[in-house]
Write a structure and sequence with these properties.
mainly alpha; single chain; 0% strand
Amino acid sequence: MDLALASVLGLVVGIVTGAVGAGGSILTIPALMYLLGQSPRAAAIGSLIIVGVSSIVGVVQHDRGGRVRWKDGLTFSAIGAITAVVGAQAAGLVSDWAATVSFAVLLLLASAALVNTAGVEADRRRPGWMVIAVAALAGLLTGFFGVGGGFVVVPALILVLGFSAADAVGTSLLVIALNSFVALVFRLGHTDGVDWPVIVAFGLTASIGGAFGSRITARLDPKVLTNCLAVVLTVIASAMLVEQAIT
């Protein structure tokens, strides 16, 4: 039953991630915790694997459509990789309760950021220090929470680097993949409780969904997709906070 559910959830997460360049980890972690019974730390590790692999598939598909800016994406990732290490080390210093509540708050902030930037097209670049700051923040979040940071990367690429929405999605997946694998390296010593068959099933279907999601980007209005993701994140965050308040 768990494998079947993981496969369905993986397909949904993959489609969302491939379509909007964000949301993979922040959907995967609650799914692994609340629907598949994994601990917050095990879910974070599983999420990094699932999202990292599915993002690579999405990058390949988006690159075929010319929607991946490799130079900018690699530069962004290099900066984020440094802070991802710091975040991964800091993750072991907090309790599961604190990690869960902090993650729920992060979801609400991500939802607000996605709504505020949905459909926005920028026509100029911002100062270099701002690029460095946002890249560093994305890496820190990746390492600490086990998230890819796409909800930070996509708005940043549009507003800070002046990307089109389509290019931001494709390039975001490149950043997510690289940041996820860097953070994973520093979490591999804490894999107790990870249900590997579930992670494999989830990851395989997420990769398939990512390929389909990348095609959606080219056909549908990214603003609609982004707003839908924001609603989902708000609902998930609210449920997590309510659960922590009553337990």
